[in-house]
Write a structure and sequence with these properties.
- By secondary structure, this protein is α/β, with parallel strands linked by helices.
- The protein has one domain: 3-Layer(aba) Sandwich (Rossmann fold).
- 43% of the residues lie in helices and 14% in strands.
- The chain has 4 helices and 5 strands; from the N terminus they run αβαββαβαβ.
- Strands 1-2-5 form a 3-stranded parallel beta sheet, sandwiched between helices. A two-stranded parallel ribbon has the order 3-4.
- α1 runs parallel beside α2.
- The protein is globular.
């Protein structure tokens, strides 16, 4: 963290926070004018736990959670629900490359369910939050991390 540059910090926040803000604003304007809707942001379990040398990522994903909560309150009057999903370790081309290079020291043994998630395992959380089954859910963070955030090893 001592060597983390301002440029790195700003780059991560532009992607993870500014990008989310701008997309949410555009969606909310449309939803406001069309009777409401559901916005689902993607944060990370790293919004709730720490990871060495990932200060900007952890802070930016925490910011997404807080933005989600503020948006949920501010836009409720328009019938817009805003929630976030917090994926844990998930198999993607990026994580596969990071694991093989040693840049991502996460192993299945750190996850109580004993494995990384498949990408499609995030679908159920998103479908639920978008559905009428979640019509009274707003400002929430749904963790989809195999229990890792509640049992960090």
């Amino acid at each position: 963290m001592l060597d983390h540059t301002l440029e790195e910090w700003e780059h991560v926040f532009r992607i993870n926070c500014t990008g989310v803000l701008l997309c949410c604003q555009a969606a909310a304007r449309f939803m406001r004018d069309h009777g409401g809707g559901s916005i689902i942001n993607i944060s990370s379990q790293m919004a709730q736990v720490t990871h060495p040398a990932r200060v900007a990522y952890c802070a930016s994903k925490s910011a997404v959670v807080q933005m989600t909560k503020v948006m949920a309150v501010d836009w409720a009057e328009y019938g817009i629900r805003v929630n976030t999903v917090g994926p844990g370790p998930t198999k993607t081309p990026f994580t596969t490359a990071a694991l093989s290079s040693g840049a991502m020291p996460v192993t299945a043994g750190q996850v109580p369910l004993g494995r990384m998630a498949e990408s499609d395992e995030m679908i159920g959380a998103v479908v639920y939050l978008a559905s009428d089954a979640a019509s009274y859910v707003t400002g929430a963070m749904l963790m989809v991390d195999g229990g890792q955030s509640v049992h960090w090893r």
